[in-house]
């Protein structure tokens, strides 16, 4: 039973102490390993959901009349304007033992039923950045380590929101620190800085004060860095500076939103980066996804729905033993325990470089990369299914059929 439920049961019909209730909500979420808390007014209740392993799960339903009090308390924690409920607000609460030791990033958004609150949790006491623990395939891990061991070039990460890009980039930086120690100058420009990393200079952009990605990067280039992490390339100016830095003796690590791993090059070209600069500066692109792993306690063989079974390409065989978690107290009846990364690494070699220069379609670039030995996300996912590590339904949730 959660702290929140025990507290609500203990007071019965008594008056709710809102500060205590909010503390218990956060502590329950942190202890469950959640990444976010969603507090949202529904028709008859104030529902609290937590995002576990990428999926929203209901934690508790509260009376609707607690909405204003709960919102007010959270605004106080985030140092927000408590008397405004008609405008979006964003705030931050530092780590506090009463809140499970997690830092909170708070977003308040007005809706027709009242304010919806989303709290992003950063549990700094239970977070490490180790490349070896991300779950990457051994060959992909070796390729990534090779890419970030080079003295210069641009290494790009892509994937949807929540696919592990920031965690992987942080892990790459920590690997460089472990390898080079104090001999390497490493700086980052982020929006926002999610975790404070040792021996790394981290800066957070602030557009309201005209401290943008391009301005920060231009200044940073005069700081004699050897490794630069750019949180996200989202505009032509940032793209141009990042590419130029990769060409002039710096190792640059960044993320780009694109529809696919091979599609990163078209995305960069759309941001006015010339193909010859891309071909010369980009060392590799990593496509990332996160999948939930079967609970090791309740995992058991099963037969998927025939319609789902037909989606598995015949190349993987017909005698596959599928496994999934049936649900147990250890996994909160979800059937899953933890997440692991899927990855495909597109290394820019001579063949890929020629294709970029020729502005070939993204689908053709993908074929060339596969012909050069790139393991696709779908191949990596099916290996996890064949090993019984996850279910085919989980793979299809993360990788739509068109991506196989």
Describe this structure in words.
It is a single chain. The protein is of the alpha/beta class and 404 residues long. It is built from 14 helices and 15 strands. It has helices spanning 3-11, 18-32, 67-77, 138-148, 165-180, 213-220, 236-247, 263-270, 275-281, 306-309, 350-357, 362-371, 377-386, 392-398, and strands at 36-41, 45-52, 55-63, 89-93, 102-111, 114-123, 153-158, 186-190, 201-204, 227-230, 251-255, 282-294, 299-301, 323-325, 336-347. The strands form three sheets. It has a seven-stranded mixed β-sheet with strand order 9-8-10-11-7-12-15, sandwiched between helices. It has a six-stranded antiparallel β-sheet with strand order 3-2-1-6-5-4, with helices on one face. Strands 13-14 form a two-stranded antiparallel sheet. The longest helix has 16 residues, at 165-180. The radius of gyration is 23 Å and the shape is globular. The two termini are 41 Å apart. The mean pLDDT is 93.
- Order of strands side by side in the largest beta sheet? 9-8-10-11-7-12-15
Please tally the β strands and state the result. 15
Largest sheet: 7 strands, mixed
Rounded to the nearest angstrom, the distance between the terminal CA atoms is 41 Å
How much helix, percentage-wise, in residues?
25-40%
Strand percentage: 25-35%
The stretches of 5 or more residues where confidence is low (pLDDT under 50) are: none
- Globally, the shape reads globular
How many helices?
14
The overall average pLDDT, rounded, is: 93
Radius of gyration: 23 Å
Looking at how many chains there are and whether they match, the oligomeric state comes to single chain
Order of helices and strands: HHEEEHEEEHEHEEHEHEHHEEHEEHHHH
Strand-pairing-aware structural class: alpha/beta
């Amino acid at each position: 039973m959660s702290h929140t439920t025990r507290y609500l049961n203990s007071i019965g019909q008594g008056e709710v102490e809102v500060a205590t209730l909010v503390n218990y909500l956060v502590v329950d979420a942190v202890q469950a390993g959640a990444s976010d808390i969603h507090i949202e007014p529904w028709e008859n209740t104030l529902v609290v959901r937590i995002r576990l392993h990428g999926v929203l799960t209901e934690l508790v339903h509260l009376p609707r009349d607690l909405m204003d009090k709960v919102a007010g308390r959270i605004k106080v924690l985030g140092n927000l304007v408590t008397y405004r409920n008609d405008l979006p607000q964003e705030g931050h609460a530092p780590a506090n033992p009463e809140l499970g030791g997690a830092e909170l990033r708070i977003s308040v958004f007005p809706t027709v039923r009242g304010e919806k609150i989303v709290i992003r949790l950063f549990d700094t006491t239970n977070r490490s950045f180790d490349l070896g623990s991300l779950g990457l395939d051994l060959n992909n891990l070796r390729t990534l380590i090779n890419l970030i061991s080079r003295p210069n070039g641009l290494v790009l990460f892509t994937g949807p929101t929540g696919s592990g890009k920031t965690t992987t980039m942080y892990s790459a930086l920590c690997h460089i620190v472990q390898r080079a120690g104090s001999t390497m100058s490493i700086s980052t420009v982020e929006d926002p800085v999610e975790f404070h990393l040792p021996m790394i200079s981290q800066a957070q952009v602030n557009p309201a004060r005209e401290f943008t990605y391009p301005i920060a990067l231009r200044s940073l280039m005069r700081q004699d860095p050897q490794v630069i992490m750019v949180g996200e390339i989202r505009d032509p100016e940032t793209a141009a500076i990042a590419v130029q830095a990769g060409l002039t003796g710096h190792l640059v690590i960044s993320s780009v939103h694109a529809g696919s791993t091979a599609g990163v090059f078209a995305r960069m070209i759309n941001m006015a980066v010339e193909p010859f600069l891309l071909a010369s500066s980009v060392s590799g692109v990593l496509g990332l996804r996160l999948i939930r792993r079967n609970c090791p306690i309740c995992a058991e063989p099963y037969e998927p729905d025939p319609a789902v079974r037909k989606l598995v390409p015949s190349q993987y065989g017909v005698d596959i033993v599928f496994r999934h978690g049936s649900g147990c107290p250890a996994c909160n009846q979800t059937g899953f325990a933890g997440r692991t990364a899927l990855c495909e690494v597109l290394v820019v070699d001579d063949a890929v470089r020629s294709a970029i220069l020729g502005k070939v379609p993204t689908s053709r670039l993908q074929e060339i990369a596969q012909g050069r030995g790139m393991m696709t996300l779908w191949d990596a996912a099916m290996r996890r299914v064949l090993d019984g590590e996850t279910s085919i339904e989980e793979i299809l949730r993360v990788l739509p059929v068109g991506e196989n």
